[in-house]
Amino acid sequence: MTDDTLEKSRLTLLGLGAMGTALARAWLAAGHPLTVWNRTPGRAEPLAAQGAEVAATAAEAVAASDLVVLCLLNDASTGEVLAGADLVGRDLVNLTTGTPAQGRARARWAQERGARFLDGGIMAVPPMIGVPESGAYILYSGSRALFDTRHDMLAVPAGAVYVGEDPGFAALYDVALLSAMTGMFAGVSHAFALLRKEKDVSPKEFAPLLTGWLTAMAPYAYGVADHLESGDYTRGVVSNLAMMTEGNATLLRTAEEQGVSAELLTPFMDLMERRLADGYGDEGTTGVIDLLTRYRTTEPST
Ligand code: NDP
């Protein structure tokens, strides 16, 4: 322990899976005294060797620090782990992935037990944690006072991005970003499927073209945002829905020629065609969002 370590605040981390371990290493490397606990005690041993205090129970770990970070499998495990702990006066930061409704319910639950609460969504994989140039960041929502007080510690493992007092927003942003990523993975899978039977096409030579194209198209998101905020879905449109829907036939026919299932493409294409049939051919694809959001007539139960 160095003099520098003595000046830094202690925190507790519950959950030492792949992500929890990466977080723990980042705080230890930054010189923060760290108390850890994990359901399977063996996972704490390498961290003990690096200077972490290992608590025998979750309740003991919670008692050790004012700031308590959780990185567990899911919301149910969070409830189980904290069941016997005294949370009065604690700052609870839950980096366990959950839904917006779970984040809001957990915030109420924490408040009832006398704790301030922040929910978090980690936009990184474990090797990106503690590597400033990796672009990793963590979304936070809930108590602004907690975020401001603890910002220096929260910014150690990854960038800290506060998205609002509503404790559901971190999960909402997280899932929105992951959902967009899922669509990208679907597109990449289809693209490689189209090439697969061609012996003369190298996936490794195609990959930079694909990456460059996706990067060039990514600012599409700004156009959609402008449409949604202005209410004018034709503003700045350079490729309109009528033209793009026409192009769908070429995409589908090429899939057929290459012996590839179009099942990843057709749900989005069906929505484009419905919007076109409703008379919006001069828009971009933003109107698809209207079709999607019309499905929801009631809030899901928590
Ligand atoms: P792991 O599966 O590696 O670890 C899960 C952790 O949860 C372990 O510490 C496990 O304990 C603990 N756990 C599970 N169930 C219980 C329970 N009922 N009671 C007590 N402890 C329990 O997952 P990760 O560390 O990768 O992920 C942790 C969180 O981080 C998840 O919410 C995940 O979505 C999120 N995350 C992970 C990313 C990643 O790439 N790994 C990326 C972004 C977010 P034990 O060791 O005893 O099994």
Rg calculated over all Cα atoms: 24 Å
Strand order of the largest sheet: 3-2-1-4-5-6-7-8
Our count of domains comes out at 2
Strand composition percent? 5-15%
Bound compounds, please? NADPH dihydro-nicotinamide-adenine-dinucleotide phosphate
Oligomeric category: single chain
Explain this structure to me?
The protein is α/β, with parallel strands linked by helices. The protein folds into two domains: 3-165, Rossmann fold; 172-297, N-(1-d-carboxylethyl)-l-norvaline Dehydrogenase, domain 2 (Orthogonal Bundle), CATH 1.10.1040.10. The protein is 50% helix and 12% strand. The protein contains 13 helices and eight strands. The chain has helices spanning 3-7, 18-29, 45-49, 58-64, 75-82, 100-112, 144-154, 169-195, 203-217, 220-230, 241-257, 266-277, 287-293, and strands at 11-14, 34-37, 53-54, 67-70, 91-94, 116-123, 137-142, 159-162. Helix 11 packs antiparallel against helix 12 and helix 12 packs across helix 13. The longest helix is centred in the middle third of the chain and has 27 residues, at 169-195. It is elongated. It starts with a helix and ends in a 9-residue tail after the last helix. NADPH dihydro-nicotinamide-adenine-dinucleotide phosphate (NDP) binds next to helix 2 and helix 5.
Condensed summary:
This protein has helices at 3-7, 18-29, 45-49, 58-64, 75-82, 100-112, 144-154, 169-195, 203-217, 220-230, 241-257, 266-277, 287-293; strands at 11-14, 34-37, 53-54, 67-70, 91-94, 116-123, 137-142, 159-162. With 302 residues, the protein is an alpha/beta fold.
